[in-house]
Amino acid sequence: MTYGAHRTPVLPPHPDLGLARDCELCLGWGTVVTRDGDHELCRACQPDGHGDSTAAAGA
Ligand SMILES: [Zn+2]
């Protein structure tokens, strides 16, 4: 795998900077960098826009 030499600026969907403003985890970026070097929405301040978990059965 070609890894590290080339950085592709892949931006996450749409981080809400308003929510991230006071976040201590992402420091206002709305995104965090995983150990793999990928950017993902900060789970602390950004609502889960991914339909990954089946939590649709709310009331
Ligand atoms: Zn955050």
Characterise this structure.
The protein has a domain at 9-48. It is 7% helix and 10% strand. It has 1 helix and 2 strands. The chain has one helix at 17-20; strands at residues 31-33, 39-41. A two-stranded antiparallel ribbon has the order 1-2. The protein is elongated, with a radius of gyration of 14 Å. It binds zinc ion.
Main beta sheet strand tally, sense and closure: 2 strands, antiparallel
Classify the helix fraction into a percent range.
under 10%
Put simply, the count of helices is 1
What's the N-to-C terminus distance? 45 Å
Number of E strands: 2
The hetero compounds bound to this protein are: zinc ion
The mean pLDDT is: 77
Structural class: little secondary structure
Uncertain residue ranges: 55-59
SSE blueprint:
Elements: H1 17-20, E1 31-33, E2 39-41
Residues 20, 23, 25-26, 42, 44-45 line the site of zinc ion.
